[in-house]
Amino acid sequence: MICNWTLSLSGVFPSARASSGDRAAQHNASAVCSGSSRSKMAGAEGDDSLYPIAVLIDELRNEDVQLRLNSIKKLSTIALALGVERTRTELLPFLTDTIYDEDEVLLALAEQLGSFTVLVGGPEFVHCLLPPLESLATVEETVVRDKAVESLRKISQEHSPVDLEVHFVPLVKRLASGDWFTSRTSACGLFGVCYPRVSSTVKAEIRQHFRTLCSDDTPMVRRAASSKLGEFAKVLELDYVKSDIIPLFTALASDEQDSVRLLAVEAGVSIAALLPQEDLEDLVMPTLRQAAEDKSWRVRYMVADKFSELQKAVGPEITKNDLVPAFQNLLKDCEAEVRTAAANKVKVFCESLPEDSRETIIMTHILPCVKYPEVRLNIISNLDCVNEVIGIRQLSQSLLPAIVELAEDAKWRVRLAIIEYMPLLAGQLGVEFFDEKLNSLCMAWLIDHVYAIREAATCNLMKLVEKFGAEWAQNTIVPKVLGMANDSNYLHRMTTLFCINALSEVCGQEITTKHMLPVVLKMSTDQVANVRFNVARCLQKIGPVLDSSALQAEVKPVLEKLATDQDMDVKYFALEAISGMYLFNLPTYIFSETFSFSSILFFFFSFSLSP
């Protein structure tokens, strides 16, 4: 058997010739097969070590895609078994000739080859990896090309300057001059890694190739060049940045395709960081101002998204003169996506403004733009950070109108969002300001026509009590909540019960027993059945807060009465409360003469269906 596996190891690559050492190994293997039993046993031991490698090699040519993929993922194991010479002379040519495969197999191959330097003999022979990776960099599937370029960038660092010019740069030139756009897009990602380590003559050729790709007829190539413009600029000498990169940046930022223009914006940020301050206004800012007003919202979105990086690159003077007006326009943009992206940068933008003019710029230019609900909510969600920048006095005066307007916004989701931020507002503005300006808003939400708002307002009250304390609740919130128990709208009366459910947990036993419980007990005679069964549920909820004397003397009689109610739901929840609080022996109680036979059946039927 070993003779067959040894042959499969050496004969799987038909395009490569076996070396004299390989032929000797095959001859010895044949001798083993026909030798003594001791030799056969020795062969069997070698057999075990070679078999897995033989299987992996065989799977490279298997018709099953999954088997080929598994074998590719273990390519390093095959290379180790073959040795560095046979990996270079047999395995790599075989892989180069079989590039036409399923995309997932090619993706795995491109990834593996990026870590193959040691397996081909080290940096001296790393150029042997270029042919298969060059082929992979030209395939149609984008993810495969990107992975091949990533591996090429990785192994470029392992080339000596001489090998870089002899082997790597010619590859880049071939890709850049390829007939298919796929190869030209791949070339764009390779200029930056080879440029710093080549001679001046070769550098000039590389710059020329990059200029050609920036004006390519195919939008996909221009897009790739635009995405790498900033990276390429970072490795160029400053004079060439001004003479070569700036014209390319201007051209790409004016391209007919918005996908090219938006990528040029990102490059512009990188270029701005490379230039001295005195050159920025003339060379970069006109193009960036144009991008901030581009007809495509996607380009304006990119400007907004990169605004803090741009602000850092251009410095305080240009920020004050150019970026503040541009930022104002982005905050007022007609597209919600652009406004949202700009709003996300408000905190960082304000923090980075010059200290001597920060407050003036914020109050005069930024806050008036905070008009749209999404933008204002974003400001409020970062209120603690905004407070650090402009101070609580300015914050309270400037944001109060926005808060009030949001609290009454026609869209209930906006109202819901501001409710969720109310505890944060309360913490920043303080109890006195809250009582004076915002308390009425919180109470108004309790009678909102949308249930989700009323529910959120109830939870909001609980969080406010946790922040300001039970004494504040007793003097401020509780009287207003209990006053709603007499409202003509039964939904508002039910909201009173929901508030008591939440507030009893944070107000404690004394306030619950003295102030809340009497109101709940009084509501047990409400004409609306929905209110009465919510009274039963409320009593069950606040039961653990009450002491045993109140439960027996006040709660128990009311639940007994509700348990005989004509409404089936009221009866059900009363019995559930009785059972949940263990006020008395329920089985004995329900079989007393207080209950009719139908009530007993209803009780057992209801509890058999309850979870």
Which terms would index this structure?
38 helices, 611 residues, 76% helix, Leucine-rich Repeat Variant, mainly alpha, membrane, elongated, ARM-like, repeat, disordered N terminus
Describe what this molecule looks like in 3D.
Residues 316-374 form the Phosphatase PP2A regulatory subunit A/Splicing factor 3B subunit 1-like HEAT repeat domain. InterPro entries: ARM-like, ARM-type_fold, HEAT, HEAT_type_2, PP2A/SF3B1-like_HEAT, PP2A_Regulatory_Subunit_A. It is a single chain. It is elongated, with a radius of gyration of 38 Å. 76% of the residues lie in helices and 0% in strands. It has helices at residues 2-11, 20-34, 37-59, 65-73, 75-82, 84-97, 103-113, 130-136, 142-156, 161-176, 181-188, 191-194, 200-214, 219-235, 238-253, 258-274, 277-283, 285-292, 297-305, 307-314, 316-331, 336-343, 346-351, 358-366, 373-381, 383-390, 392-407, 412-429, 431-445, 451-468, 470-483, 490-507, 509-522, 529-542, 548-562, 568-581, 586-590, 597-609. With 611 residues, the chain is mainly alpha-helical. Helix 5 crosses helix 6 (84-97) and helix 28 packs antiparallel against helix 29. It has a domain at 481-611: Alpha Horseshoe (Leucine-rich Repeat Variant), CATH 1.25.10.10.
